[in-house]
Amino acid sequence: xxxxxxxxxxxxxxxxxxxxxxxxxxxxxxxxxxxxxxxxxxxxxxxxxxxxxxxxxxxxxxxxxxxxxxxxxxxxxxxxxxxxxxxxxxxxxxxxxxxxxxxxxxxxxxxxxxxxxxxxxx
Amino acid sequence: xxxxxxxxxxxxxxxxxxxxxxxxxxxxxxxxxxxxxxxxxxxxxxxxxxxxxxxxxxxxxxxxxxxxxxxxxxxxxxxxxxxxxxxxxxxxxxxxxxxxxxxxxxx
Lengths: 122, 107
What we know:
The structure holds two protein chains of two kinds.
Chain A: E1 3-7, E2 10-12, E3 18-25, E4 34-39, E5 46-51, E6 58-60, E7 68-73, E8 78-83, E9 92-99, E10 109-112, E11 116-120
Chain B: E1 4-7, E2 10-13, E3 19-25, E4 33-38, E5 45-49, E6 53-54, E7 62-67, E8 70-75, E9 85-90, E10 102-106
Parallel strand pairs in B: 2-10
Antiparallel strand pairs in B: 1-3, 3-8, 4-5, 4-9, 5-6, 7-8, 9-10
């Protein structure tokens, strides 16, 4: 079964850091671009960052550039998001998502994890 | 950034109804548009890409159309499993942005 499982969310104070992890299984992880997407309560999803199959290219949403870092370990079938200088507005459910390999689909997300909640509060 | 606007925000319908949701882009995105379905407490599910192509396993009662700046998602005969929130997403240019959602609720 194709699966993504996130972990690492929790309560953090403003200015603090968290590292999210996503464990992939059921597919050849190293063949896919991967992304992080978040969703604040009652809002639409918001794409944050993606990373190429070999980690050689990474792209970020402007509002998280310089604070968040996406990385991957293909040997461990894992995706990571290091989040620093967290703000109240970063509070959301964070999803790991697989980018579709269908060329005609462009940058879309065909498999999502169950999400991990990040709360930023003092 | 390309802004995606969906209408209506909420739609009340009955089982068997034909339902149409609209998504507008702030600039032309050709057919670089996807649709997702999300149920409460769950992750979004990929339904449609390239504006009108169904993802594998998605029932044929779902269809998409449009190009440029205006797109529609149609459910030909609403089923109990279809009550959910639907999001459009543009994949024309970075950053990849989503609409605010359309909730399809039971009338």
